[in-house]
Specification:
The chain is of the alpha+beta class. The chain has one domain. The chain is 40% helix and 31% strand. The protein has 3 helices and 6 strands. The protein has a 4-stranded antiparallel beta sheet. A two-stranded antiparallel sheet has the order 1-2. A hairpin with a 2-residue loop joins strand 3 and strand 4.
């Protein structure tokens, strides 16, 4: 086989790389620069993918944490029908969650639908705020506020 035929066979169309004839022999593959550029692009793509997945995972954990804290706060408020019931247990623990109840007594004047005052004494009620933290001295995760009436005096 002549050198020209060998060169044509080596330098003809190829798949998966570049063929190059050097001193009558074929060399296949990518240059070092091409390989470095390809690896750089792949590493940038993988790093951004890794960061996106990490942020998504953190977001899911934060949402689950807030949901659990909200359930604890709601159950604390639901356990008391009247303000006196909430005063009996001002703090507590539910699993990893610690909660603390703050109360503020107020007199609420009653009004008709049209805005006229209702005759009689105002309603005695308490503004109850439940603060939920993860751990005893952890950061506050949830604050939930509700109004509870005091029992009427017989």
């Amino acid at each position: 086989m002549t050198v020209m035929k060998r060169l044509l066979r080596c330098c003809g169309p190829s798949f998966g790389g570049r063929r190059q004839a050097v001193q009558g022999q074929c060399q296949q593959g990518f240059s070092l620069l091409e390989a470095l550029v390809a690896m750089s692009i792949a590493s940038i793509a993988l790093a951004s993918l890794y960061r996106t997945v990490g942020q998504s995972s953190k977001g899911v954990v934060d949402v689950e944490s807030r949901i659990e804290a909200a359930l604890v706060a709601r159950s604390v408020l639901a356990s008391s029908t009247f303000a006196e019931d909430a005063e009996r247990q001002p703090n507590g623990v539910a699993g990893v969650w610690h909660w603390h109840v703050q109360m503020q007594a107020e007199q609420i004047p009653l009004r008709e639908e049209d805005g006229r005052p209702v005759p009689g004494a105002p309603l005695r009620a308490a503004k109850i705020t439940v603060e939920v933290t993860r751990g005893k001295d952890g950061p506050m995760v949830m604050t939930w506020t509700a109004w509870k009436p005091y029992r009427s005096v017989p």
